[in-house]
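Researcher: Please translate sequence to structure tokens.
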Amino acid sequence: MRNRLVRAAAPAAAAVLLLGGCSGTDDGSAVTRGTLSGQLTGSGATFPAPLFDEWTAYYSTHVETRATIDYRAVGSGGGIEQFLSDTVDFGSSERYLQGSELAIAGDVRGCPAVQFPVVFGAVVVALNDDALDGLVLTADVLARIYDRRITRYDDPAIAELNPGLDLPAEEIRPVHRSDGSGTTYVFSRYLTTEVPFWGDEYAEGTDIDWHPDTLGGDGNEGVARAVGENSGGLGYVNQSYALSNDLATARIVNEDGVAVEPTLDATTAASEEAEIPDDFQFSIDDIGGAGYPITGANWIFAYECGYDDETAALLRDFWTWTLTDATADAAAGDLGYAPMNLELKDRVIEEIQRIDSR
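Model: Translation complete:
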């Protein structure tokens, strides 16, 4: 299996959140550690679920022991739906809220939504066969696999990319997400930007009308399971799910023609190429250099109003803690996620202060 490269955790963007210290509130006053309490509910993407599980457990056990955070990994589509129906305190997705959704959010509570990225991650192509670990694939070949134009591992297009590799004369069993998925959005956007026919026939989105000869799985865990249980299985999952299921992964050719392994360093390199505007609505496209080309971000959604003081303080503190504590960064790296750089963290922390600011 491939080796995971863990990047050193970035130093805290603000020293106010070290364990035993204080954190800032919306008005800049200090909050002494151990004084916050309450319960947060959130739902959404399975993409960051392993990391969110680590973060919430550590925060509730070591940081604010009177606080609980219940995150339900229902998929990005479900997270957006539950956020816009105002049934959770925060939502999560690998796709930012777009114009029509922001308009709906503004009507829900009579104030704007707040959305901000918290982490980057790779969408990897996982393989059933360990002998295929490091298989080189391009966007065009991936698109033709999912469109069933390429159906065998020994297809000439794959053989050309992998000279000297003994490719099995085996059917490829492509697996996709069957639920509304931000991981699907990242994967399908990559194919849409790189492969003309994919944009014409499938396009990008959280829900795709997949070819009928492909398999479906619920959540990243369902896709990983289907890849592992089906001979010839191939599917797209967040990197942490490939790691936890000990699945082989493919190298993907990026914009500069480099076949890149989905390591943490390669994910970080891709994230650093993204141009991130003030409204945090961005995609990570056309990645070259040392960057892994199928990279996405995870966004958190909240509101500018409508929370009680306890909930608002806990929301601001928890998400600020995830960005400023060394333990939180280390957990991200260990699971294959790329923490944001200091400049972006500072911008996001400022955005977090908009939560319940009205």
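Researcher: Any highlights?
Model: Residues 149 and 339 are 37 Å apart (CA to CA).
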